[in-house]
Amino acid sequence: MEQSIFAGAEIVKHDSPIPYYFQLSSFIEQEIKAKRLLPGQIMPSEQEFCEKLGVSRTVVRQALADLERNGFITKQSGKRSAISFPKYNGSLMQNLRGFYEDAVSKGQIPTTRVLELKVVPAEGELADALKLKEGEPVIMINRLRFLDGEPEVLVVTYIPEATCPNLIREDLTNQSLYELMARKYGLVISQGRRTVEAIALDRADAKLLGLPPNSPALLLKSIGLLEDGTPLEYFVAKHRGDRSKFHIELVRGAD
Fold first, then answer.
1. Which of 38, 177, 189, 246 has its CA 20 to 30 A from that of 14?
2. Model confidence at 94, in pLDDT bands (50, 70, 90)?
3. What does pTM read for this prediction?
4. Which pairing describes strands 150-160 and 191-200: parallel, antiparallel, or unpaired?
């Protein structure tokens, strides 16, 4: 790790008017974005930075604080800081893009492992969400989704079979479900309702996400509606609690 940061580069220019801490944090940020520093890698100690770069601990601490505040590194209790794993940033309001579109728009690489793809009967909460009669067929898509190669979210999506019957034969490994439905079936989600709550992962889900049992997660449930209000999609997603952040946009209504 030390060679990855210090070898072959002038990180801090002492004759530059740019503050030393900003030069250091900017350099490390660029290395992370260029994937020369990888998620999970341990940072050098403060003392190593000071000795190699000829700067004070105050400079190093300020640079590391900036990197942590911007999500590039993670401070570990009793240990050195480490390069952060990619974090999924989603929206609970005013953004109906899916996981794939969100990730690509932020320069991240989304990939998918399809765990299950089959037709199941609509029952209970599922039937209510999609406004179907009990027993009507729905296509169930169970996927494990990754960001930059790291497992991020488990999501089970339900689509009424009558709406797009050939969806069961599609390869959903590495393409956007929303883009596919728009392109092949002319179906576009224009509104929706979402809820989010904190949960603890059971053993099976935690293993798929590479976490210990009972790790924290965010449970997201969403109903996607067509322009005329017809339900098109219902999904239940379990996002890793350590790598997920959702934004809520608020609009003040009339008094």
1. 38
2. very low
3. 0.63
4. unpaired
